[in-house]
């Protein structure tokens, strides 16, 4: 396996201790506003990769762009939660995975609820269906990752996550070492974590030394200073900044597919 996320060298790292950074835009397909900002960031070189949520209303739009731009780095965002109170979505296998949904048919809101209720067979079938939906649309999937760290909530969920990567021959987003804050109460043993990810590691799955997600609550006026500090403090190894791109106005994405890479994108308000 080769991790196909674009990796950027930053800082003045010495040859023996290089620093690499992936700037990753999360949740493509969530909505038209997210798609517009994500595509714009990719076109301008601001972000190196993104992922796609196949069950959300913006999926068709981002799928068209991804298919027509196979040089862009789009992973598949495995989703078992729908965290918004007023914006709901549910499984691809509607009506077939009862342990994954609330009474209204939408996913549980939190990863802890998934850990409490989800049956592993339902998880495995639903996530394979999500991957297959993207493959059926001819999207060149570069990697797998997961929404709200849901696959780190139980040991058996992590085992399924690793197996999906192996079965579909795709790299999966993994921390080199267990990060307790990302994991559920049932997955807090570093030795167990190392054992569970070993099949992926043995196949050459790259590992992140650091994944930055604390930026979510930073006020916009403080973002620049926050990221400059994070960049200056970057340690040797492979790091990832997970960000969320969106526009804050009602906009319509106008995009005309062309043959080959380098398609032009127009935005209208």
Pattern of helices and strands? EEHEHEHHEHHEHEEE
Distance between the termini: 42 Å
Strand element count = 9
What is the overall silhouette?
globular
Structural class: alpha/beta
Report mean pLDDT, rounded to a whole number: 88
Relative strand content: 15-25%
Helical coverage, percent range? 25-40%
Describe the sheet with the most strands.
7 strands, mixed
Radius of gyration computed on alpha carbons: 18 Å
Low-confidence stretches: 1-14, 251-269
Please tally the helical runs, counting DSSP H or I stretches of 4 or more residues. 7
What are the defining features of this structure?
disordered C terminus, 17% strand, alpha/beta, globular, 269 residues, 7 helices, two-stranded antiparallel sheet, seven-stranded mixed beta sheet
Q: How would you sum up this structure, described in words?
A:
Helix content is 31%, strand content 17%. It contains 7 helices and 9 strands; from the N terminus they run E-E-H-E-H-E-H-H-E-H-H-E-H-E-E-E. The strands form 2 sheets. Strands 1, 2, 3, 4, 5, 6 and 7 form a 7-stranded mixed β-sheet that branches. The chain has a two-stranded antiparallel sheet with strand order 8-9. Strand 2 (19-28), helix 1 (32-43) and strand 3 form a beta-alpha-beta unit. The N and C termini lie far apart (42 Å).
């Amino acid at each position: 396996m080769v991790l196909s996320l674009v990796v950027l060298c930053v800082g003045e790292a010495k040859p023996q201790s290089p620093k690499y950074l992936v700037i990753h835009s999360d949740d493509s397909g969530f909505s038209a506003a997210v798609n517009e900002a994500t595509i714009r960031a990719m076109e301008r070189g601001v972000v190196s990769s993104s992922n796609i949520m196949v069950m959300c209303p913006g999926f068709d739009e981002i799928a068209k762009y991804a298919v027509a731009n196979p040089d862009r780095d789009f992973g598949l965002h495995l989703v078992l939660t729908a965290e918004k109170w007023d914006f709901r979505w549910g499984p691809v296998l509607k009506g077939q995975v009862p342990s994954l949904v609330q009474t209204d048919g939408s996913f549980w809101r939190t990863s802890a609820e998934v850990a409490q209720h989800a049956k592993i067979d339902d998880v495995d079938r639903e996530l394979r269906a999500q991957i297959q939906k993207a493959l059926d649309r001819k999207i060149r999937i570069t990697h797998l990752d997961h929404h709200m760290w849901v696959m780190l909530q139980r040991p058996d969920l992590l085992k399924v996550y690793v197996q999906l990567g192996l079965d579909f021959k795709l790299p999966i987003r993994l921390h080199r070492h267990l990060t307790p804050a990302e994991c559920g109460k049932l997955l807090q043993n570093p030795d167990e974590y190392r054992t569970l990810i070993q099949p992926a590691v043995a196949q050459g799955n790259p590992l992140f030394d650091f994944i930055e997600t604390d930026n979510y609550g930073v006020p916009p006026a403080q973002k620049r200073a926050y990221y400059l500090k994070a960049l200056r403090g970057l340690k040797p190894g492979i790091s990832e900044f997970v960000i969320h791109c969106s526009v804050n106005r009602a906009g319509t994405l106008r995009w005309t597919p062309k043959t080959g890479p380098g398609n032009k994108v127009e935005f209208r308000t």
